[in-house]
């Protein structure tokens, strides 16, 4: 049985796709021979099938590999560890073209508008993490004469990393924070997007990382993911995905009280006050939800505008979206919005649009039908496309303003004053991000202080920086990724008391 398959990309380029589980720096077959099908969201066609891990034997193999590598890895000098990260970043950079095309084929991301930027972000993340590797020291102080206290930040052990389908490579690279902190890891890819991480795995071995430091298993979340979460040999779980699954992860991880970082769903508000730059607000509102086909956990998917500027905002929002977010096949260099990840997800988005109209919304752009340019394209009309859709006159209690859709759908409503805006912004089970547009700096900071979210964007939307922690509150999860806070999430803090005086 071959664990590689030659695949022809839409560009005509051929490459060898690994199909096995990546354990101990080798591609190996599944213990039970089961496979997982990878589909092309742009056409609806099957790409290939990869090996699917046995929930018992293969998860055990991967965890054992990581466990055996842990002590040697945490003993590797910080300088050598940093150099390995920089070498891997270099290799990813050299393979940007291939990785971005595979990422696009597997996830439906337009190559130029999304996938290439995602791969470039992997390079940047690895370089950023390399800089932190020798800077994770603790604190020290002398509480009294003859006394010294200090803290150590030590790696936890084996970390189980569960990554989502919407950013298969870039979200994976965020969880390399675990490895930077001295842990070893078992990564489970999303069952919808198993391909690009296996291509990346080849580069990990080529960079010189010791066997077992980085392992990859493919499979369904309910079986393979749950086996990883509940495994007694795993010391921490880092999860990115839906709130519903995140709740199960937290419950199942409690079997050995392992710590859990949960980055779950969101319904981030964007609040536009009448004193805002309406042109800028409209641009950022579109970017905040239509980027990556609306498949963004932190997407600003519910917008509320002060009444005096509501109609002006809608006009500018529609015009900007029409001009800047064309729908097209992932390989089309002019496409900005590609397909949804699966046919079921496409149907779910259409259902939300139809439900919003039934509740009282007006569709002022897009709608619950295949985009016209795709419907007339024989090659791609079987793909899972949804047009950027704007729903006007949404009330805060409407389903589209309360539930995570995870598609290119923006609901827009109105508010009266600051108190009304704050009430609406916080009227959500989620708390990942929040955006506010105003020229009043006092109002902006007051909003940032009072809104219930892990991140706030003032006069922008959905920005991130590697130096800043990413994460939410309420049903959006807990724990942080990126920045120093993210690094510390993958360590155990040990307090050390030193006495050098007589009792």
TrEMBL record:
<feature type="active site">
    <location>
        <position position="263"/>
    </location>
</feature>
<dbReference type="InterPro" id="IPR016163">
    <property type="entry name" value="Ald_DH_C"/>
</dbReference>
<dbReference type="GO" id="GO:0004030">
    <property type="term" value="F:aldehyde dehydrogenase [NAD(P)+] activity"/>
</dbReference>
<dbReference type="GO" id="GO:0046394">
    <property type="term" value="P:carboxylic acid biosynthetic process"/>
</dbReference>
<keyword id="KW-0560">Oxidoreductase</keyword>
<dbReference type="InterPro" id="IPR016160">
    <property type="entry name" value="Ald_DH_CS_CYS"/>
</dbReference>
<protein>
    <recommendedName>
        <fullName>Aldehyde dehydrogenase domain-containing protein</fullName>
    </recommendedName>
</protein>
<dbReference type="Pfam" id="PF00171">
    <property type="entry name" value="Aldedh"/>
</dbReference>
<feature type="domain" description="Aldehyde dehydrogenase">
    <location>
        <begin position="28"/>
        <end position="496"/>
    </location>
</feature>
<dbReference type="InterPro" id="IPR016161">
    <property type="entry name" value="Ald_DH/histidinol_DH"/>
</dbReference>
<comment type="similarity">
    <text>Belongs to the aldehyde dehydrogenase family.</text>
</comment>
<dbReference type="InterPro" id="IPR029510">
    <property type="entry name" value="Ald_DH_CS_GLU"/>
</dbReference>
<dbReference type="InterPro" id="IPR015590">
    <property type="entry name" value="Aldehyde_DH_dom"/>
</dbReference>
<dbReference type="InterPro" id="IPR016162">
    <property type="entry name" value="Ald_DH_N"/>
</dbReference>
């Amino acid at each position: 049985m071959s664990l590689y398959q030659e695949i022809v990309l839409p560009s005509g380029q051929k490459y060898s796709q690994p199909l096995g589980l990546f354990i101990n720096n080798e591609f190996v077959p599944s213990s039970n021979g089961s496979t997982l099908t990878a589909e092309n969201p742009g056409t609806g066609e099957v790409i290939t099938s990869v090996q699917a891990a046995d929930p018992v034997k293969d998860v055990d193999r991967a965890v054992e590999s990581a466990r055996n590598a842990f002590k040697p890895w945490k003993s590797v000098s910080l300088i050598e560890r940093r150099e390995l990260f920089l070498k891997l970043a270099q290799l990813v950079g050299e393979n940007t073209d291939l990785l971005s095309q595979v990422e696009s084929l597997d996830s439906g991301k337009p190559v130029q508008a999304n996938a290439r930027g995602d791969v470039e972000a992997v390079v940047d993340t690895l370089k950023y993490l390399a800089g932190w590797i020798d800077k994770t020291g603790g604190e020290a102080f002398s509480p009294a004469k003859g006394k010294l206290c200090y803290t150590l930040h030590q790696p936890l052990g084996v970390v189980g990393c569960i990554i989502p389908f919407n950013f298969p490579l870039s979200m994976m690279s965020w969880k390399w924070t675990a490895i930077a902190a001295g842990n070893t890891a078992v990564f489970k890819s999303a069952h919808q997007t198993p391909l690009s991480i296996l291509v990346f795995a080849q580069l990990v071995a080529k960079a010189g990382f010791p066997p077992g430091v980085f392992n990859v298993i493919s499979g369904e979340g309910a079986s393979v993911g749950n086996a990883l979460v509940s495994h007694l040999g795993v010391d921490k779980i880092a999860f990115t995905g839906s709130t519903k699954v995140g709740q199960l992860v937290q419950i199942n991880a409690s079997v050995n009280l392992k710590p859990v970082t949960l980055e779950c769903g969101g319904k981030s508000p964007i609040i536009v006050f009448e004193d805002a730059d309406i042109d800028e607000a409209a641009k950022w509102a579109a970017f905040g939800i239509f980027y990556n086909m609306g498949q963004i956990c932190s997407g600003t998917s519910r917008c509320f505008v002060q009444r005096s500027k509501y109609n002006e905002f809608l006009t500018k929002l529609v015009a900007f979206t029409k001009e800047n977010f064309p729908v097209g096949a992932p390989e089309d260099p002019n496409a900005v919005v590609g397909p949804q990840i699966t046919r079921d997800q496409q149907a779910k988005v259409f259902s939300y649009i139809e439900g919003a109209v039934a509740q009282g919304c007006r569709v002022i752009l897009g709608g619950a039908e295949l985009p016209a340019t795709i419907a007339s394209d024989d090659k791609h009309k079987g793909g899972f496309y949804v047009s950027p859709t704007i729903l006007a006159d949404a009330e805060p209690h409407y389903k589209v303003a309360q539930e995570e859709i995870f598609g290119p759908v923006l609901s827009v409503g109105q508010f009266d004053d600051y108190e009304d805006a704050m009430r609406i912004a916080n009227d959500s089970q989620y708390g990942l991000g929040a955006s506010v547009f105003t020229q009043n700096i006092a109002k902006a900071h007051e909003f940032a202080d009072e809104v219930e979210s892990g991140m706030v964007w003032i006069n922008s939307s959905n920005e991130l920086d590697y130096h800043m922690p990413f994460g939410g509150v309420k049903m959006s999860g807990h724990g942080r990724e990126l920045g120093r806070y993210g690094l510390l999430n993958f360590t155990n803090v040990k307090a050390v008391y030193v006495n050098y005086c007589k009792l």
